[in-house]
């Protein structure tokens, strides 16, 4: 069996996703739309497929319905190859009646399901990160170093390490110290990369850097079982530090683009960056494509529009509008005379029928999409939102909080129209 076929991938579905709320009010983090037509979970799954790893478990817990639909309709493998993407949701058993208590606890409870697949390594991934990685490289490094655990590590300037797990390594990249989210400047300084490791990095930096954990782990099968034979709940905070000095832990250096999509601001900025002429993450990579559901939608249609630096999903209709630095999802609709700048429109799950449009007119309810003469700035419009004519939206000068009876939320300086919200014609929040 090829070495990559001896690897089982486990993708963490995340917790409640409170930092990404209200985008996670009706869906889990891996199911949040990305880049006009994808979901966050498509990133780790595509990286696995492009690395010839096709036995994948996805551990989920909160608001999983849309995630289940997406996985079921997208990832179908040749039955003769043995590939699969299986969702394992939190469940009550004779041993446990509560929710997953953390990343390590989630993996521990599902070890029984992993035993049915032949493997000697388990690759543990996050379901809410944007990056492209060939996992065969970290696996090769793991085997060559005869490591028990290998952690993907990215160099981060010492001034920007807040919220990361940091590690100190020898010149052979063996991990000697691991500290989860340190705040003490003296501790951070002690974890700075030394000259021998700095020389191994391709990019040079004038500022001191630390190696931050990417939350990507390769475990030997037996070591993982031993590491979880306790009540520890989190890998970074408990399991990894507990293994230091008892097992061989190594770092695998990664210097490509990597973004943890954990907050509204990081989600907003990572998406809009894709609309740049030379985006930091390239979806147009032919040798390592990102896969997603095939929607069989018509090409998007534009009439008399001014469009600049925009990503637009299939099946969209935009008429006589100005769209600048935006990401529009599938089935997006923008009415005449509207102006959008720095806006993410997630689109719609369906087109409304003639009968539904007639019903909307009778009830004086806006159609799905953005109406005529709207002006929207620095906003996220979640799926199936109905925005009437002449609506003006911007978070500039507004405090974070809830507006329009909860239909609009401003968080981290970004205005969000929640999924399925109805904003009547003429509403102004700016």
Largest sheet: 9 strands, mixed
Outline type:
globular
The CATH first-level class of the largest domain comes to Alpha Beta
In the CATH hierarchy, the architecture of the largest domain is Alpha-Beta Complex
By CATH, the topology of the largest domain is Spore Coat Polysaccharide Biosynthesis Protein SpsA, Chain A
Overall mean pLDDT stands at 93
β-strand amount: 25-35%
Q: What's the CATH H-level homologous superfamily of the largest domain?
A: Spore Coat Polysaccharide Biosynthesis Protein SpsA, Chain A
Estimated structural class: alpha/beta
Number of domain units: 2
Number of distinct helices = 10
Total count of strands: 28
Unreliable stretches, pLDDT < 50, 5 or more residues?
Answer: none
Instruction: Indicate the percent of residues in helices.
Output: 10-25%
Radius of gyration: 23 Å
Span of the ends, CA to CA: 60 Å
Description:
The chain is an alpha/beta fold. It folds into 2 domains: 3-273, Spore Coat Polysaccharide Biosynthesis Protein SpsA, Chain A (Alpha-Beta Complex), CATH 3.90.550; 301-429, UDP N-Acetylglucosamine Acyltransferase, domain 1 (3 Solenoid). 20% of the residues lie in helices and 30% in strands. The protein contains 10 helices and 28 strands. It has helices spanning 42-50, 65-74, 103-114, 135-144, 185-190, 195-198, 221-227, 235-243, 264-273, 354-363, and strands at 7-12, 33-34, 38-39, 55-60, 84-89, 121-126, 129-131, 149-157, 165-169, 175-180, 209-220, 249-253, 258-260, 301-303, 306-312, 317-319, 322-328, 333-334, 339-345, 369-370, 375-381, 386-387, 392-393, 401-403, 408-411, 414-417, 422-423, 428-429. The strands form 6 sheets. Strands 1, 4, 5, 6, 8, 9, 10, 11 and 12 form a 9-stranded mixed β-sheet that branches. Strands 15, 17, 19, 21, 23, 24, 25, 26 and 28 form a 9-stranded mixed β-sheet that branches. The protein has a 3-stranded parallel β-sheet with strand order 14-16-18, with no helix packed on it. Strand 2 and strand 3 form a beta hairpin. The longest helix has 12 residues, at 103-114. The mean pLDDT is 93.
């Amino acid at each position: 069996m090829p070495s990559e076929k001896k690897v089982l991938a486990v993708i963490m579905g995340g917790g409640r996703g409170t930092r990404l709320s209200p985008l996670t009010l009706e869906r889990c983090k891996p199911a949040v739309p990305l880049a006009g037509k994808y979901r966050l979970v498509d990133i780790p799954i595509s990286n696995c497929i492009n690395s010839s790893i096709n036995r994948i478990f996805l551990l989920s817990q909160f608001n999983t319905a849309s995630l289940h639909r997406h996985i079921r309709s997208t990832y179908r493998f040749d039955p003769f190859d043995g590939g699969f993407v299986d969702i394992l949701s939190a469940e009550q058993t004779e041993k446990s009646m509560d929710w997953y208590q953390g990343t390590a606890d989630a993996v521990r409870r599902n070890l029984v399901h992993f035993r049915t697949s032949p493997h000697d390594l388990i690759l543990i991934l996050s379901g809410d990160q944007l990056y492209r990685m060939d996992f065969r490289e970290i696996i090769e490094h793991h085997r060559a170093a005869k490591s028990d655990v290998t952690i993907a590590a990215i160099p981060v300037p010492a001034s920007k390490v807040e919220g990361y797990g940091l590690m100190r390594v020898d010149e052979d990249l063996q991990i000697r110290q691991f500290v989860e989210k340190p705040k003490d400047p003296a501790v951070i300084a002690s974890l700075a990369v030394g000259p021998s490791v700095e020389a191994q990095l391709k990019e040079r930096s004038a500022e001191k850097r630390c190696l931050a954990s990417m939350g990507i782990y390769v475990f030997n099968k037996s070591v993982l079982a031993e590491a979880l034979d306790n009540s520890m709940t989190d890998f970074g905070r408990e399991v990894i530090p507990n293994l230091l000095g008892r097992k061989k832990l190594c770092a695998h250096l990664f210097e490509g683009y990597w973004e943890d999509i954990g907050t509204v601001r990081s989600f907003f900025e990572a998406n809009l960056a894709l609309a740049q002429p030379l985006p930091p993450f390239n979806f147009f990579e032919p040798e390592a494509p990102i896969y997603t559901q095939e929607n069989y939608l018509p090409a998007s249609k534009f009439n008399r529009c001014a469009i600049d630096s925009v990503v637009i999903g299939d099946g969209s209709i935009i008429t006589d509008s100005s769209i600048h630095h935006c990401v529009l999802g599938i089935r997006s609709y923008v009415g005449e005379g509207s102006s959008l700048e720095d806006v993410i429109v997630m689109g719609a799950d369906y087109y409304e029928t003639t009968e539904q449009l007639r019903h909307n007119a009778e009830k004086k309810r806006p159609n799905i999409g953005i109406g005529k003469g709207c002006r929207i700035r620095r906003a996220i419009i979640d799926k199936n939102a109905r925005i009437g004519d002449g609506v003006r939206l911007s978070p500039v000068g507004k405090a974070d909080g809830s507006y329009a009876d909860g239909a609009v939320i401003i968080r981290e300086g970004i205005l969000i129209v929640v999924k399925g919200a109805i904003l009547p014609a003429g509403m102004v929040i700016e």
